[in-house]
């Protein structure tokens, strides 16, 4: 087991983490994008982004792109799991300002937007890398008051299940219905380009 420090609210931390991992690991079979913050008061990341979209989505987007060379080396069969939430079903993407500035901020609005962005991210990864044998899905991990492993079962299922719906959304260890906006591939492409520009890859 290798333990490394990572703060997904800091692009510098993400880049340093990815550099260390790529220097030590030839391949990545599974990437689980799981770090996040939930319904917090307005705050900003180290890079000046709204804290929830910055931590829950843009940080994961940058991390995934930086680790993609090692993920590709494990293909076919490598997997990317984006941990979302059932709350994504109430989310809307504000493509004109995903940071929800100009008095647009609401802590639940920001959270549900970030969780919808997770589902969109997984679908876009699946569409863009399906020919390389990379599978990407999003999950609602569940909410439990005891036994942490029970709340992790759906995430673990998407790592171990022999067959998955590429780009799908999973809850309770099975495919689940999702926000229709998550399947709007024109919106997905727009979110992808906004994300690339935001993290400095475009």
From TrEMBL:
It holds the Pfam family adh_short. SUPFAM superfamilies: NAD(P)-binding Rossmann-fold domains. It comes from the Eukaryota. One of its GO terms (molecular function) is oxidoreductase activity. Keywords: Oxidoreductase. The keyword Repeat does not apply. PANTHER family: PHOSPHATIDYLINOSITOL-GLYCAN BIOSYNTHESIS CLASS F PROTEIN-RELATED, RETINOL DEHYDROGENASE 12, LIKE. This is Retinol dehydrogenase 12. The lineage of its organism: Eukaryota, Metazoa, Spiralia, Lophotrochozoa, Platyhelminthes.
């Amino acid at each position: 087991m290798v333990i490394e420090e990572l703060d997904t609210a800091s692009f510098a931390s993400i880049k340093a983490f990815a550099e260390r991992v790529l220097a030590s690991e030839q391949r990545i079979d599974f990437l689980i994008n799981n770090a996040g913050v939930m319904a917090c008061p307005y705050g900003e990341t180290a890079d000046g982004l709204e804290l929830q979209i910055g931590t829950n989505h843009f940080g994961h987007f940058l991390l995934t792109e930086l680790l993609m060379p090692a993920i590709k080396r494990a293909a076919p069969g490598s997997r990317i799991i984006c941990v979302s939430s059932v709350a994504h079903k109430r989310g809307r993407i504000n493509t004109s300002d995903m940071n929800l500035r100009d008095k647009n901020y609401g802590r639940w609005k920001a959270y549900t937007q970030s969780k919808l962005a997770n589902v969109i991210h997984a679908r876009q990864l699946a569409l863009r890398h399906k020919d390389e044998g990379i599978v990407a899905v999003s999950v609602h991990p569940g909410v439990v008051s005891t036994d942490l492993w029970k709340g992790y079962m759906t995430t673990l299922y998407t790592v171990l299940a022999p067959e998955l719906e590429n780009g799908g959304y999973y809850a309770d260890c099975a495919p689940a219905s999702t926000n229709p906006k998550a399947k709007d591939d024109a919106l997905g492409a727009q979110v992808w380009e906004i994300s690339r520009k935001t993290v400095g890859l475009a």
